[in-house]
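HOLO CASE FILE
Compound: SAJ
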Amino acid sequence: MTAKETLVKKLKDKTATIAILGLGYVGLPLAVVFGEAGFRVTGVDPDSRKIDLLKKGESYIPDVKSEAVAKLVKSGHLTATTDFAILKEMDAVSICVPTPLRQTGDPDMSFIISATEELAKYMHKGMVIVLESTTYPGTTRELLLPKLGNDHSLKVGEDWFLAFSPERVDPGREDYTTINTPKVMGGITEICGVVATTWYEGAIKIVHPVSTAEAAEMSKLLENTFRMINIGLVNELAIMCERLGVDVWEVIDAAATKPFGFMKFTPGPGLGGHCIPIDPLYLSWKMKSFHYNARFIELASEINTNMPRYVVSRVLEAMNDRGKPLKGSKVLVLGVAYKPDIDDVRESPAMDVIGLLQKKGAIVEYHDPFIPHIHHENDGWHFDSVKDLMKSVKASDAVVIVTNHSQYDYKAIVESAKFVFDSRNATGKFGKTHEKVERL
Ligand code: SAJ
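Model generated. Tokens follow.
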């Protein structure tokens, strides 16, 4: 039997040994899904705290229940280690490591490079490798292939197999999870794609093969660039509507009554998270090497990045209209997570709003039921979430709603506040007409 035939047989009968490199919000759910499908999975991560918790059958990812981890650990379908050498015993490896941006705004490929260079030490005949980390088109072929194919006696597509499959994990979502979110898969060669698709079809309900790794890499960037640009569009629409004296929320709700050809996005204080503000910049960065300027991405990024400044300028104007300078005023920022009902502040525009309010001389506090403490690495400031929300609302000269967590009683907040700036339409219809409320 050829290396491909042997590997495909093991993938189909689930005797193939699986490793997941990187056990974060993508890797751990994937490890559990493969384990529950019947594979023996080894999770590999340099963070020994994660490994210790997993060995005890405990999860540290909200989307993954500890019961599920404990059951797999008990049955032997999930083990965890910090030792990369285990990879020499593995048939299939999925790489799920972060791809953030550097301070310069360029892609930070360090996590992919270090994971790939570790894995390269243990490559052997009959392995399939899948990269899941969101990255620029060409990464799998240009960066992983040379490093993993360093043993020239082994031929990719014959002796070992390499593909890209973009992660589509939306933390906190319960309707679409790793197992039932369709998975795009593209190989370095056609056979690579077939082998990797066979592997993932053993655990994930729908796998959608594409012809190349680049097509798979690009499809992910389209998904998230689509969101980023449309959010930029409605953010600019909010600025235009304010100039026109038109209610942007009413306009968007009206447009959203169109049952076809329209998709609703809502304006806000800016773009947060570890995907949407970042993924499109991987594409625009790559296109620079082709001397192509990705204008839509650049413009949308500029608009979205400016929204915190726009929000603070609207607060300053509104307080001025009320005869209250922002300087020396007490301002309570409500909600600092990057989106409602989650505990993640990565790239949250709230951090920029707070910094800009402080620069204008405001005395800032914040409240967020999910985020007990925040600090700003560059500016050095740090806060604890206020303990008594309504006491702080009453004591503030202004409340700025930045993240509209669903548990807040917005009516009570407006009744108790002196002034509310609502950047998320959290106050809804009653906020539109309430003399204490201004909306984006
Ligand atoms: N945002 C707006 N207006 C909108 C939608 C979002 O201002 O209409 C803001 C959010 O407040 C947040 C940022 O954009 O600050 C990103 O929001 P998001 O809803 O896109 O949430 P993310 O970053 O968690 O995006 C993830 C992505 N999932 C993956 O990359 C696998 C994205 O592709 C999903 O579409 C998104 O979740 C989702 O739909 O929830």
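CASE NOTES: The chain has two domains: 3-211, 225-439. The longest strand covers residues 17-21.
CLOSED: yes
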